[in-house]
Design brief:
By secondary structure, this protein is an alpha/beta fold. Helix content is 34%, strand content 15%. A five-stranded mixed sheet has the order 3-2-4-7-5, sandwiched between helices. It has a two-stranded parallel ribbon with strand order 1-6.
Length: 261
């Protein structure tokens, strides 16, 4: 008998997401610099400095993939080395905390995603986007959370897609309707990746990194890279729009905050 996917209540979906965001503490997979000087840098410059993306999930996953999709091009634009350090654990909270407490000098940034907001809603963290400076939204998943993980079963005929939780139909599943199309407006979930800087990082630094990443997002080779890797399409929001999006994301999720108390 074929197994069918059926929609689940929005609160239970958030519970599943929380479980998916969890994980045990892991040792960083790359060497972290000893730390930037205490004074604020006026801009990203200087051959002795390395820019670091703290990815709050483990190496080899979709978050890590999206960070590295940018870091392979950033050195040519910034004229500096750019590395990824994976600090996983507590659904991304450990990495978020590490980046939040970094010096605001433009050499350490958080590369995270929607679980950052979910951690605030569920009380895992007591802070949200207001504890950071927003740099950009750097991408959106192609529905891997509920789609990519079961693709092999669909191919064998054991499972059948009934709907996706994406905002729009997925390019690689054009015949599968969204939950919204079927009247389930609450079942919408786009895993969005974003870059945040420690609070009080100078605006010109955030602008410069945002501009560099936007330039990469417009490269055909970048678009092909994320398509080949995770069936993603390009999605990029600059600073102001990204901040509004993350805040709206929080407000949408906070409706279910009592469920987690």
């Amino acid at each position: 008998m074929k197994k069918l996917f059926t929609p689940i209540p929005a609160a239970l979906m958030l519970s599943a997401l929380l479980a998916g965001c969890g994980g045990k503490t892991e040792t960083p997979t790359s060497t972290t610099p000893e730390g930037p000087p205490k004074q604020q840098a006026e801009e990203l410059k200087g051959p002795e400095k390395t820019v670091e993306f703290v990815v709050f999930m483990g190496a080899g996953g979709d978050t890590d993939f999206n960070a590295r999709a940018y870091t392979q091009y950033l050195p040519d634009i910034l004229g500096k080395d750019v590395i990824v350090t994976n600090i996983a654990g507590s659904g991304g909270a450990l990495g978020s905390e590490e980046a939040k407490n970094a010096d605001p000098d433009g050499y350490r940034f958080l590369f995270g995603h929607t679980c950052f907001t979910l951690n605030q809603v569920t009380g895992i963290t007591d802070y949200g986007v207001d504890a950071f400076e927003v740099v950009c939204c750097a991408g959106v998943s192609a529905g891997e959370v509920f789609v990519g993980t079961v693709q092999d079963y669909v191919v064998t005929g054991e499972f059948k897609y009934l709907a996706t939780t994406a905002t729009e139909r997925l390019p690689f599943l054009p015949d599968v309707p969204t939950c919204v199309e079927q009247g389930m407006d609450a079942l919408v979930y786009d895993l969005t990746y974003y870059v945040l800087a420690p609070k009080e990082t100078p605006g010109e630094i955030c602008d410069k990194l945002c501009s560099a990443m936007k330039q990469i997002s417009e490269m055909p080779e970048y678009a092909q890279y994320i398509k080949d890797g995770y069936n993603q399409t390009v999605h990029f929001l600059e600073r102001e729009e990204a901040e509004s999006f993350i805040q709206a994301e929080y407000e949408k999720m906070s409706v279910y905050s009592d469920y987690f108390q």
